Amino acid sequence: METKKTILIVEDEKNIVDILRFNLQRAGYGTVEAYDGEDGLSKARETNPDLILLDVMLPKRNGFEVCKALRGEGNNVPVIILTAREEEGDKVRGLEIGADDYITKPFSMRELIARVGANIRRTTVLSPAVDTTTGAVTLAGDLSVNAESHLVFRAGKPIDLTQREYDLLTFLAANPNRVYSRVDLMEQVWNYGYVGDDVRTVDVTVRRLREKIEENPASPVYIRTRRGMGYYFSNAAET
Ligand code: CA
């Protein structure tokens, strides 16, 4: 299902571009190339890459100017600055103007590919993809939520939840894999202090929520039970 990620290479030395393209493509990435800062900026805007490898010393506009311009436009694409070993101040300067990482030349291809992967993963976690039809953000698996409309979707279809069910789901999902006791949930989601048998309310709400969001409510994958302890939201949809 995962679509191919695209890397924009902005580098004026053709032999470096060639070796980057070859290795990135072999690692499963698509590539776009630019040989000067001006063209790098246009291609960043036009092709909306998943990451930019950005050389510092470039014709027309240098790497810092390109990065600064992108950040000024609110573009948060991960940027890895490629800098020569002797350009000591470049690292600090690059990070100051909003680059995510830097790598010094000559670099090992293995390290570069690892950094590319790490920086793409980091942004995927930080800014989950918003579904353009539902405006919803994925919680886990086929479950998504639109926090503005308070709508939860399963496989793109809205689910009819009560306010309490919605509150319980979003509370648990905000802290995946953290176990909450029924007393905790009573206090956090219902805003009640612990009053005797009221914790049964939590069990009932969990059961109803499971009936609505789980494929098989008897064997839930999202809202799970930690026996004797409480409930938690699992974002590892397969298990
Ligand atoms: Ca250069």
Structural class: alpha/beta
CATH superfamily of the largest domain: Response regulator
Q: Which architecture of the largest domain does the CATH hierarchy give at level 2?
A: 3-Layer(aba) Sandwich
* pLDDT averaged residue by residue: 85
C-alpha Rg, in Å?
23 Å
Distance between the termini: 18 Å
Q: What compounds sit in this structure?
A: calcium ion
**Order of SSEs:** EHEHEHEHEHEEEEHHHEE
Q: Give me the count of strands.
A: 11
For the record, the count of structural domains works out to: 2
CATH topology of the largest domain: Rossmann fold
SS strand fraction:
15-25%
Q: What's a concise summary of this model?
A:
The chain is of the alpha/beta class and 239 residues long. It has helices at residues 14-26, 37-47, 63-72, 90-96, 109-126, 163-174, 182-188, 199-213, and strands at residues 6-10, 30-34, 51-55, 79-84, 101-105, 137-140, 143-146, 151-154, 157-159, 223-226, 230-233. The protein has a five-stranded parallel beta sheet, with helices on both faces.
Describe the structure.
- The structure is a single chain.
- With 239 residues, the protein is of the alpha/beta class.
- It has 2 domains: 6-121, Rossmann fold; 137-233, Winged helix-like DNA-binding domain superfamily/Winged helix DNA-binding domain (Arc Repressor Mutant, subunit A, Orthogonal Bundle), CATH 1.10.10.
- Helices cover 39% and strands 21% of the residues.
- It is built from 8 helices and 11 strands.
- The strands form 3 sheets. It has a 5-stranded parallel β-sheet with strand order 2-1-3-4-5, sandwiched between helices.
- A hairpin with a 3-residue loop joins β10 and β11 (230-233).
- The longest helix is centred in the middle third of the chain and has 18 residues, at 109-126.
- 28% of the residues are buried.
- Calcium ion binds at residues 12-13, 55, 57-58.
